[in-house]
Every structure is written in structure tokens, then in C-alpha cells.
Amino acid sequence: MNLSDRIKHQVESNFDELVAIRRHLHSHPELSFKEFETTKFIADKLKTLGYDLKQITETGGYIDIEGRNPQSKIIALRGDIDALPIHEKTGKDYASKNDGVMHACGHDVHTTCLLGAIQIIDAMKNEFEGTIRCIFQPGEERLPGGASIMIKNGILKNPSVEKIMGQHVMPLIDAGKVGFRSGLYMASADEIYIKVIGKGGHGAHPHQNIDPVYIAAQIITQLQSVVSRHAKPSIPSVLSIGKVIANGATNIIPNDVYMEGTFRTYDENWRNEAHDLIKKIGEQTAQLHGAKCEVEVRKGYPFLKNDEDLTSQTMNWAKEYLGKDNVEELELWPAGEDFAYYSQEIPASFYRLGIRNQSKFDQTMLHTPTFDIDEDALKVGAGLMAYLALRELSH
Hints:
There is one protein chain. It contains nine helices and 16 strands. It has helices at about 5-25, 35-45, 105-125, 145-150, 210-230, 270-290, 310-320, 340-345, 375-395, and strands at about 55, 60-65, 75-80, 130-135, 165-175, 180, 185, 190-195, 200, 235-245, 250-255, 255-265, 290-300, 305, 325-330, 350-355. α3 (about 105-125) packs across α9 (about 375-395).
């Protein structure tokens, strides 16, 4: 029996356990950097395999699975463990028991698949050379990102990790399939906070006021020029204002208006230039109308770049494991992901795990209260992760 068939056989044998793990995690979600019970659950599962979770942050840790000649090559697999502040509305019997917290981004799946991959790899540790570091990372959903903290604390050192792989659920891909993209894949993600300070008063006498609502509208319009007239057409960029609070009334002009938004792109030099433009547009537009404007651009995750050589290899190995018809080419995805921090340090490959099955349920997108998965995806998620790691060590 070849490696692929052996892994698939073991995944089938472990499938009921994987489902149980995923449902437990889904029922007990915890917010970023507060994943204390989640970490304890992971540690208990690892202990049954003979591993002690080495904690490198308050709720994040790792294990090293050592084969023969463990220093010959060190690679890493990563799973994130945190959930989102969302009220779940799936109605499932494994729905969140923690009110207002939900695994709506699939991190319960990522954690389960990594635990499943560890079971497979551990059973074969006498058959490969090198070390596989398995990282359980907190705080992906909240700045500054758990990845940045773990890197700062040495997760890629002692010994030095040479390459890293990770996966993320994708509701636009059918269960049983995966997607890859070499090179630039996910965008940097920055948060924009703007406060326009004017002079409020009666809505019937606008000439006696400095109307921050009108000025905020001008700023929103002018900010669109950051992308449409300042960005190079060759650099994808997005600027969106998603929150506007103007707490006046039908006949009241408020004293100030508050706005929040996001800026995303794929080039660090342009990113910094855009931040300056956003501040300048806000401040100068307000000044033109006699108002003040406070602008904060909170720098988030960097862009995620998949190493071309590693991703070409992982994509070919995925075709070996799943068949070429079950491996898709991905488009640019302008969401942010703190796995990007790893990709800035060492060669990385971040791919997508299909979870959709329209014959079973209507799939909703990530970060929605009705998000769920076809649990058959756990077989691919755990098995492929193990296969990619073992193929990389034998490469």
C-alpha cells in the first residue's frame, strides 16, 4: 500500500473521532487570546499520543514530531484556534454553547485537521527523516495577530524552521477539493478610524454651523481617489468605509461624525504611501470647510505571499493525493490573514480546503451566523496536511 492509500485508510478509521473533536471545538468557541479551555482540550488530546504541548504564548503552543535524524530538515504545520464575536444561528445540536461567540471562520476545522494530521504522522515517525513542528496558534482574528507574537517568541527558531504550510476553509469550493495559488495571494489589511469635528446646531440654520455630516460625505468620496487615481493599476487595492456614525436627528446637525473602514493592498511601499494619502485627504478636506479631522490608520497584517517553489510542489502533491480534478487554481483573495507573518519570514504555502456541499445545506460565507461545513472535508483536511508534510520531508 502506497503512502497516499495508507493515509486515506487511517483517516477513514479516525473519521468519527475527527467529527467528535470538531463538534466539541465548535460547541465551545473562545475569542482571540482567551482560548484557555481550547488550549487545554488540545493539550489533553496530544497527551494521549505521548506529546506535551509546549506553550510559547499564554494560549498558543506547539509540538515537534521527530523522525529519524530530526535535525536534517525542520518544517511546520499551522492551525489557528480562536473564534469570532458572532451569535450562532445554525440551529445544529453542536452549535455554540458560549453566547455571542462562534467558530464562524472554520478555525475549529483547522485545529481538528492538524490534530488528525498529527495522529497520522506520529504513526509513521519511524519512516521519515526530519522534524515536523505542529503549531496551534491563538488570536488570528485580532490585531496584532497571534502569528506575530509567536514569531517574536521564537516559534520558528530552536531549531530553525525551514518551511511552513497551512490551510483555511473555503465555502466557495466543494468538499473533496482544495485550491492553491503561487505568489501573491492575500492582501495586507489595515483599519481606518476617522473623526470629523465640526460645529453642530439646528438643521434649519446650516450657515451657522460647520456641518460634519457634509464634510464626512466629502471625505468618503475623496478617499475613493486613493485607489482610482493614486494606486498603480498593476497593484490591486481596496478602500472601503463600512461604518458611519452621525448622531444627529432630522433637525439636528451633530458636532462630529465618526467613521471606520479598511484599506487592503499587495505592496508595502504603496501601502505606506496610501496611509499618508488617507490622512492628508481627511485632514485637508476638513480644513477646507473649517472643521478638524482626526485620522488613525491602524496597521494590520502584511500581504500573504506563497512561495512559488513550495506551492508548486504542494499543488502537485495535492494532485497526487486527491487527483488533478480536485485541485483548483485560486484567484487573489483580498481578505487578511495573519499567516502572512510566517510568509514574510520563511517559504510558506497557504492553501484552501473545500467545505461546500449544496446537496446537504445552503452554504453561507465566512463570518456569518449560519456558517457551517460538510464534515467530510475533515478527511481531506487531515489527510492532505499529513501527506504534504511527509512528501516535503522526503523531497
